[in-house]
Amino acid sequence: MRSALRLCASAVISFLAVHAQTLERAEALWKQQQYEAANNEFRALVASHPKNPDYRVRWGRLFLERFNGAEGAKLFQEALEIKKDHPGALLGLALVAAEDFQGKAVDLAGQALAADPKLTEARLLLARLALEDNDPARAAEEADKALAISPDSLDALAIHATIDWLNDQPDSPWMSRVLAKNPRYGQAYALAGHSFVLNRRYEEGIAYYRKALELQPDLWSARSELGINLMRLGFEDEARTQLQDSYEHHYRDAATVNTLRLIDSYKNFVTYRTSDTILRLHKKEAELLRPYFESELKRALATYEKKYGLKLDRPVQVEVYPDHEDFAVRTMGMPGLGALGVTFGYVVAMDSPSSRKPGTFHWASTMWHELSHVYVLTATHHRVPRWFTEGMAVYEETAASPEWGDRLDPHVIAAIKEKKLLPVAEMDRGFVHPTYPTQVVVSYYQAGRVCGFIAHEWGYQKLLAMMHDFATNTTTAQVIEKELGMKPEEFDKKFLAIVDAETKTVVERFDEWRKGIREVARMAKAGENQQVIDKSAALRDIYPDYVEPGNLYEFRADAYLALSDPRAAIQELEHYAKVGGRSPETLKKLAGLLVEAGRPADAAAALDRLNYIDPVDEDLHRRLGDLWFAGNNIDGAIREYQAVLAATPVDPASAHFNLAKAYRRASRPDNARDELLLSLEAAPGYRPAQKMLLEMSQSEQGK
Amino acid sequence: MAAAKEVGGGVTSPHLFAVAALLFLPVSLRATTYYLTIAGLGGEPEYEQRFAMWAGEIESILKSAGGDASVETLKGPAATRANVRAALEKIAGEAKSQDSLVIMLIGHGSHDGVEYKINLPGPDLSATELAALLDRVPATRQLVVNMTSASGGAINALSKPNRVVITATKTGTERNATVFPRFWVEGLRDPAADTDKNETISALEAFHYAEHKVAEYYESQKRLATEHPLLEDTGKGTGVRAPSVENSEGLRAAAFPLVRLGSAKSIAGSPEKRKLFEKKDQLEQQIDELKYNKAVMAPDQYRKRLTALLLELAKTQEELDK
User: How many Å lie between the alpha carbon of B4 and the closest alpha carbon of chain A?
Assistant: First the structure.
């Protein structure tokens, strides 16, 4: 936008020169919400005073306020090129970084303060960032420093008030001071709303946004946030009203616009309700996915109810999005949330298996992860640090099945090697304000491993005890001390010792493995099959968790097949599946080999794994249906053949006929006849179906 | 019942074509089909190998299908323009009007905005030249399956009444290497492609199969589709992605038997069963007519009548199979 505006800038400069712009005029227009006019003023100011960094900084702040942080950042950078320690420019960059929850925001705000120690806004930003990091003591300290510079700072008072509210002290004296100075200062409650939402305390967050709007109905940012969070909790009608109101009053940031679009798209979804579940699926795949999602949803709820000793008091809503962009709208403005699924109270939003390349996403593992959050958040009344709820969720994935969950990936190996794992008491920082690009991924691993470590050393019940402690607003350090009987620092030592021992081989020999895998790939390409097998055995065991494309299990299996040793190939691929290999093609290959080896039940099990990975695959359902039909698992066969039909097969006649056969074997003649007629309606000359029709007809006549 | 509704609606178009197929069938039973498959220049070893492999697979499927067929394949260094001309001139000298001709092109194509060419060793072959060679073949029924990149650019030059033209891409500007041939080959050997289960894969069925699989491929790989197959069989020169009664495309393709499967081959050559075969044809036509009236019939009445006809057809088929 800005560059386009700049293109025509030279054309209007002569006119503007006559007009005699002033900063005051630009600021006045901005205050009057005449944003376009203010933008024009700033543009002309910068054109006529190219060496003035202040104008660029103020122009950047206008962009930042009007939802264009990227353009704002460019202007702040330009200001820094003119004056390298411009405090306003540094603050501007810190604010842009803070919007995206980047760890560098703290550093930039610090630099701004170094350039101007009396820059209250930078202090306030540091206080807010500390609050986001779940560090109320530091937040209070920064707020106090801000008050020391500006005793009337309403935002500093609001920080203190928010800390009280987060600590369940509703009658904060700090808010009384805010209201005494400005009875319409809704922004104070909006800050609290933001903090509660970041702490996943959505209902309380919504209540604070409402309070903000009671004081200041035209606080459109708060109204938009209210709408977004109502929508997150499933209150779509009111969410739409609030968001539309914001939109109509020109508050049109990406989150507002995209959330409205998402609400509009709900007409393309189908909702299935039971007494304890609400499942929302896109029309185009609802019939196919419903049986798999419904059964897994029920299984997870039953398991968690028992494990957590908690019965939910309302249905859990699971929304499944075939378009990843729709899912992404759900996580806008929320740091460190999963890239595949997200939980808002009783509402889980997640990617559909069809939204991702087959083999890259285990939807059932994701669903179990998110449903764990529902229980942990409910059990703790949403008073739980991010690391703990994520750690529990990651732990539950592999507890549901050792093949599920994420494997140790190269980013985590690098983090362990570089000693980048965080102390347990500071782990939230890794989710909320990551300081390196892969820190969120590393934090998920670490949190899961911490919970696994506790479960192993102290028992699963200890995790539940910790969960209940968190419900009382206890800090991680206090909980560790209370339940594990040691200081967090001591826990960190023990934990890191275990992690180091577990990962010693791969961490120390990772470079050797990486070099070796390249060599094996070259050998495989050259058809040097025996060399592939000889070279890869030891390499595979350096990093057995690696099951991504180019893994050694597949190289070895292919080499064994080329050397006519299918048994060894099967062993290799079974190992791959057990470790968590998810390539549909490879698992289908394993199933094919198992069939050839006379192990149909194992072949069916190999294919059934894919139902949790890539159920949008007609061929999978047909093959699995055939295997189960032959193995007399008729209910399973019926489910798979129904899935074939739901996948709009290229050959509907065969699909209906297979289902008819299964129904007939299940002694459901009416269903069998219905499917048989549908098969013959599609293909009247279909011999096997004709034969069955004659048999059924003769059998009915004989009755 | 949702499934019933879907199937009833979904089969409308193919069955119009099935009627047409039955009308054409007696002619096809007495004629020879000439198949010429050309695998062009790969440019890189990987493509060279892939193109030759697909052409080889087509040859093997067609040869094992039997029937009165002449199968020729030009691939690798043999796939020159001169050899293509010679092969088509030979067919032109042998074929009769009741015969059929099937040309399948695999490889890289190009389109300069005016003219389409398939890349061959030595001089390339343009769509106009190919059309002229095809025009000299007396076989009335012709099928051109152009599976190369940019093949959509050839559709206009190749179109003609009585000729079915299938292309892997919708225009000459879709220039990426295509996956269409992979699924076309798969369709020729996959019984699932025979959706009406008459044991013959028609050109339309093979097109539907490959088109469906191509779309599925790009969808599952989360890649932007760089090819959109088209079919044209009216001679108008504009292909469609979904041939149907509404756009009048697909009628000839439905009536064009491409590969016969299983016992269809032996029945085709058994004159003593012609009477039963004719009865079967009539029953199939009655079933098609009934399906067209489905929307205006009471469901029970439709089901009863359909069951009766299907039973009669099954009994007739049982007699034929004895």
Answer: 7
- Return d(Cα A619, Cα A588) in angstroms, integer: 10
pLDDT confidence of residue B266: 54
In B, minimum Cα distance to A616 occurs at B220
Report d(CA A135, CA A519) in Å as an integer. Answer: 49
Closest CA to A672 of A680, A682, A662: A662
Q: What single-letter amino acid sits at A403?
A: E
A328 — pLDDT class (breaks 50, 70, 90):
confident
Task: Name beta bridge partners: B163.
Answer: B142
Q: Is the pLDDT of residue B262 over 70?
A: no
Residues B278-305: tens digit of each pLDDT: 888 889 889 988 988 888 999 999 999 9
Residue B234 DSSP SS3: coil
Strand partners, A278: A273, A317
Could you give the 3-state DSSP secondary structure of residue A344?
strand
Chain A residues 336-395 with a CB less than 8 Å from chain B: 354, 356-358
Are B318 and A654 in contact (CB < 8 Å)?
Answer: no
Is B277 in contact with B264 (CB distance < 8 Å)?
Answer: no
Of the candidates A388, A463, A442, the one whose C-alpha atom is nearest the C-alpha of residue A199 is A388
Q: What is the pLDDT of residues B11-58, one digit of tens each?
A: 334 444 444 444 444 444 458 999 999 999 999 999 999 999 999 999
Say whether the ipTM exceeds 0.85.
no
**Chain B residues lying within 8 Å of A645, measured CB to CB:** 3
Per-residue buried b or exposed e for A545-569, using 16+ beta carbons within 10 Å of the residue's own CB: bbbeeebbbbbbbbbbbbeebbebb
Q: Identify all chain B residues contacting A651, using CB atoms and an 8 Å cutoff.
A: 191-195
How does residue A324 score in pLDDT terms, banded at 50, 70 and 90?
confident
Task: Work out how many CB contacts closer than 8 A connect A with B.
Answer: 99
Measured between beta carbons, which residues in chain A are less than 8 angstroms from residue B318?
Answer: 690-691, 694
The pLDDT-based confidence of B265 (bands split at 50, 70, 90) is low
Burial of A465 (0-12, 13-18, 19+ CB in 10 A): middle
CB count within 10 Å of CB A307 equals: 15
Nearest CA to B111 out of B43, B39, B175, B177 is that of B175
Chain B residues interacting with chain A (CB cutoff of 8 angstroms)? 1-4, 7-8, 10-11, 191-199, 208-209, 212-213, 219-222, 280, 283-284, 287, 291, 303, 306-307, 309-311, 313-315, 317-318, 321
pLDDT at A336: 55
Q: Which of A477, A487, A505, A293 is nearest to A408 (CA)?
A: A505
CA A148 to chain centre: 40
Residue B24 neighbours by CB distance under 10 Å: 18
Q: How many CB atoms lie within 10 A of CB B6?
A: 16
In 10 A of CB B102, how many CB atoms? 24
Is A681's Cβ below 8 Å from some Cβ in B?
yes
Q: How far is CA A623 from CA A357, A592, A606, A619, B212, in A?
A: 21, 10, 11, 6, 19
Q: Which range, of A95-104, A515-524, A615-624, B242-251, averages the lowest pLDDT?
A: B242-251
Domain extents in chain A? 269-379, 651-703
* A269-379 CATH: 3.40.30.160
Q: Cα–Cα distance between A199 and A17 in angstroms, integer?
A: 51
Chain A partners within 8 Å of B314 (Cβ): 690-691, 693-694
